[in-house]
Amino acid sequence: MVRRQFLSFILRWLVSSVAMYICINFFATFPEGSESLRTSFWLYLAAGLIFSVVNTVIKPVVTIFALPFIFITMGLATILVNAAMVGLTIWLMPDVSMSFWGAIESCLLISLINYLVNLAMPDVK
Hints:
The protein is mainly alpha-helical and 125 residues long.
C-alpha cells in the first residue's frame, strides 16, 4: 500500500514537472543570459516538486481563508487561488518570473493536464 502511494506521488510529481515545463516555457520569462537555465532538466523537476509541496501544504490553508469569496463567486475564485499557487511556485524558482495573466493561464493549463491524468490514473487508497 505504501509502495503504491509512493509510486502515485512520483507519477504526480513527474506530471507536475511536465506541466511546469510547458507553463514555464510558454508563460514565464528569464533574465538575459540565463539560457542554460531554460534548458536545465533540474529546473523543471524542482518546479514540479515545489508546486506539489505548495499544493499540499499551502493551498488548503489559503482555500479555507478564501471560502467566503469562493462562495460569493460560486467557485470562480478557485482560479485565483490556483493562480496564486502557481505564482508562489514561480516566485520560489531562481531567475524565473511570470505575469499575473501568465499565472492564470498556467493554472488553467495545469488543471486541464491534471484532469486528463486523473482520468487515466486510478485512485490510490
